[in-house]
Amino acid sequence: MPQSSLQAPSAVIMIRPHNFHPNAETARDNGFQTEVTEGASGHLAVQAKAEVTTAVQTLREAGVQVHLFDDPRDDRPDAVFPNNWFSTHPGGHVAVYPMYSPNRRIERRADVLEMLKHRYRVQDIIDYSGLEQDGLFLEGTGAMVLDHVERVAYAARSRRTSEVLLERFCTHFNYEPMVFDAYDADDVPIYHTNVLMCIGTDVALIGLQTIHDAARRDELRARLVQGGREIVELTQEQIANFAGNAIELQGKSGRLLAMSTRAYDALSPAQRQKIETHLKILPLDIPTIEMAGGSVRCTIAGIHLSQRPQATSEGEAK
Q1: 221-227 long-range CB contacts below 8 Å, 24 or more apart?
Q2: Which helix (DSSP H) or strand (DSSP E) does residue 126 occupy?
C-alpha cells in the first residue's frame, strides 16, 4: 500500500461544464485568460466538456477517486474551477469562500456539500461567503496554497485575497499566513497564488522570480526547504504556461503530480527529472479550459476528509 501524505488527497471533486467559455468578468484582473472570437463559445463548450471527461478518466485509471458533478447551467462560465469556492481539511472541516466576481458566487452548490456530508465525516462547515457584502474575498485554494504538513498558508496579495479574511481563516484552521506580492512578466499582480506555486510532499514548484522583494523571496524559499521540500524554480514563461498550477494526488501506485500537457511541455528535462525523483507526473490535456486563465490545479478540489465506511456512490455523477 503506497504511503499516504497530508499533501496528496486520494479523492477529489471535479465539475464538468456544459456551457464553458472564458469569463468576461474575471478577465479584468486575470492576465492568464485568452480572448476568444465572437461566436466561438459553442465550440469551446463542447471541447471543454470533453476535456474534463477525458481528464477524469485518466485520473481514475491512475487510482484517484473522482466525484464528478455536471454543470448544465449557462450562467456559470467558471464552474469548472470548484477549488475557489470551497476547501476541505483533516478533522472534518470544510470552508466556503467569498468570491470576487459576482457571476462566480452562484458556483457554490448545496449538492456538492451534501455529498461531502454523506460520503465523508464532516464536523463543521465554516461559511465566509456572507463577507462578500463587506467587500472581503478569499478565493479558496486559488488565493491560498496550503502546506498541510507545516501548517502554512501562502498567499499572494490581490483583489481576490483579503488579508483580513486570510488572518481569520488561519485562526480558524490553524495555519500561519505568509503573504507576499507577486507579479507576472508584465509587472501585473498575479491574481491567484496557485498559478505561481505548488507544494507537494517532497517537492515544491514556485516562480520565485515573480516576487520582487528579495528578502521575502528568500524567506519563502527557506520556509519551503525547512519543510523538507526540494525546490523547482519556475520562470515567468513557465508560469504563463501554467507549470505552477499543479496538484499532488495519491494514486494506486503512489503519489503523482497532476498538471496540464501545456505545463509539462514547458518544463525542462532537468526539471521533470527532479520532480520525478519524488513522484510521477501525470499530464492532462485541457487547452480549452486553460483559455479561462486556470489549469489543472484550478479544476480539482482535493478532499482531505475521512471517508465514511458505509459510503455509497449516491450523490455522485457518473
Answers
A1: 223/150, 223/152, 223/178, 224/199, 226/150, 227/147, 227/149, 227/150, 227/152
A2: strand 124-127
Q: How far apart are CA 231 and CA 203, in angstroms?
A: 6
* Residues 123, 66: Cα–Cα separation, whole Å: 22
C-alpha cell at 316: 455522485
pLDDT at 4: 76
Centre a 10 Å sphere on the Cβ of residue 146 and count the other Cβ atoms it contains.
Answer: 25
What tens digit of pLDDT does each residue of 135-156 get? Answer: 999 999 999 999 999 999 999 9
The pLDDT value given to residue 313: 46
Q: Rounded to two decimals, what is the model's pTM?
A: 0.93
Nearest to 199 by CA among 260, 285, 257, 286: 257
Amino acid letter, residue 306? S
Residue 27 and residue 40: Cα distance in Å, rounded? 17
pLDDT tens sequence across 193-239: 999 999 999 999 999 999 999 999 999 999 999 999 999 999 999 99
CA 168, 84, 203 angle in degrees (round to 5)?
85
Instruction: Please say whether the beta carbons of 5 and 304 come within 8 A.
Output: no
Give the burial class of 131: count Cβ atoms within 10 A of its Cβ; 0-12 exposed, 13-18 middle, 19 or more buried.
middle
Q: Report whether 187 contacts 58 (CB < 8 A).
A: no
